[in-house]
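Researcher: Quick sanity check before group meeting.
Model: Go ahead. Protein one:
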Amino acid sequence: MHINFEIVKSALYFIAVLSVLVIAHEWGHFFVAKLFKMRVDDFSLFFGPRLLRLGKYNGTEYNIRSIPLGGFVKIAGMEPEDLTRGTTTLRSEGTGTFMIGLSEETLSSLQADQVSESVKDTVDRAVGEDGKLLDAGREDLKTLLTTPVNPEERRYIQAVLAADAYRPDPDGYNQKPIWQRASVIFAGPLMSLIFGYLIFCVMGFTTGLPELNNEHIAISELQPGMPAEQAGFKNGDWIYGIHGKTVEELAKERSDATRKTVTIFDVTLDEIHENMNIPIQVTVVRGKTPLTFMVTPAPGEDTILVDGKEKKVVQGHLGFAPDQVWSRSGVVEAVQRGNQIIYRQVTGIFESLTPSKVKDSLGGIITISRVIHEEGKRGPERVLFTAAILSVSLGILNLFPIPVLDGGHLVLLLWEWVRRRALTAREMASAQVFGLCVIGILFVLVMYNDIMHLPMFHH
């Protein structure tokens, strides 16, 4: 059986990147929750059934699960069912009774058809919107027990009164002040941003970073047997001049001639494409040393846009992938470059969400895997740089005000603070359902956009 090792390597890169980003993000939630003495039951990498139990420490169980797509931290008191311990399901119509401490399991053995409407109505009136028994309601139920009721009705009433004794876990998320809960939620996106930023800074003085102010084209992914490799080009060289002129001079000449702005990137490729089978003099910089080569672009087929329509053309190729210029620097300069990159990354994310750009910039799991596959060909440092970009994106996008996302949780906490009253379990559940619907629609749109950007759909 033939194994495509490039595909296997890309899959491993993908899982590694996803795992590291999830651990960083969830660790932010975990650390602040522990800081505020909240009970954290589970810290799991991936989802699904448990594959490996790493152990239990300080009340938290650490696991690796079987579906390698993300991960989670389970903080006690965060879910609606943690607040209500379930809801009654005795009413066939209406919303049913929400009762703190009263679970569906408790009522599962009851025969609902044996409970009269008058008893159900009394229970409904006895329980407030916050899931707790009203003082008057408690007395009404105790009085009801002294009247003739059948065994199933008695069990029901007793279960409701017993649930009234339930006391929430003081270490639960929902029992902490709003500012502490908001801090726990915000810590995840914040840690994603910090993690991406730290990767940028460390890469600056180790593997190197793209030079943001250097618009020259660098040589990458040299193709065996093609003119660039045969002439002696090396990966990492960047093109300084062609025909004895700098690419800056060529760009200015073309800009003046066409009265349109021509970039260094465009003019460099144009000179290569237009000189098919014609020897050209190319000057590159290797490290800090300029080197000059005579090389002849070979014919190659490309697809270009002409009047908005795609057209096949044959033009000159040297046999490399255009890349940004990368370089290493000292620690102080690396931090400065890290600042510049994360600033551009954050502002770029918001710019890409404008109506005119969102379609081209929107990408999901398919786009991410494709980018990691392509960057993996250039080396692990490129995958690490991609991971930093994804970490920053994860931090920003998670702050969007959509329930289920961290930003949605923050909005719900803000609403709780404004109205000075905790959300009921019913309100929390409704918000989560709404958020899941929005996420579901976005997922479908992103997947469609991903698929339509695959090469097989470009004609």
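Researcher: Fine. The other one?
Model: Protein two, sequence then structure:
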Amino acid sequence: MVRIGWWRQQYRATYGELHAALASQVRISEVHVRYLYQQVYLPLLACHERQHKDHLAQCAKKQGGLIVALAGLAPQGGEPQIGCVRALSSGLPLRSGGLCQHAQPTFEAFLEPLQHLAWPILAVLSDQPTGVVPAVAPVLPHSRHQVRQAHYLRTLAEPLAEADAACKGALRQSVRQQVGAVLGQDARTAPSQAGVLTVTGLLPSPLAEPKGPVSQGPTPRNSPSAQEPEADAVVTQRVRHPRYLLTLQGRPPFRLAGLETSARLQQVARVRLDLLAPR
């Protein structure tokens, strides 16, 4: 039970992975693993959380009631979605369990035990799944209900995100038209490297034997043999960063890839001009 709970909570192991890890030591089926987690481990976890009831009471007394958040966790493998009601100030879960459907009667039955708490529910914060909004009013009539601000921000940011995505596409196309050949070329490497840079560990790559006579003195920095590797290294480093910038992905409303790509490419251009000025 300890292993099942630990692997599931810490490493997000699937039931198949749990069964594969346990089957080599005990005779157990995947169905039994699923039963142990859902019907034994989760109730034990809930009993453990009840020890924090005093802390929950202190938080409720301090703010005159509880503000709770209702959230749903993504289902796995066609299983019912797991719903969770937790107190925002303390983070303690008040109720959690599987929800077979997103309907008003389901959420009403899930929220109904909150009526029997010793403290009033001041507000409910939730997403906007079907059935939640009409279920909160009859079950908790004296509580305020608010949708999470991230959803409002995402809705407000949709027009800007669309324009930003179009900007990013036009920007990438313009950059590839002008310097696509430069960004696409690979750095020149010695044939012996075969694309491998540095390998260490128990089996490191052998040191290459020096080719030709060993020089008796330092190579002047202005000689062609010294300039070519240094120039390749500079060009390679300067090319990698713009190539990476063209792959930036946005996360509206918190990150707009088009604006970020434009600003960082302008910074790249300024650095390149500063490098070209002295040389």
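Researcher: One line on it for the slide.
Model: The chain has nine helices and five strands.
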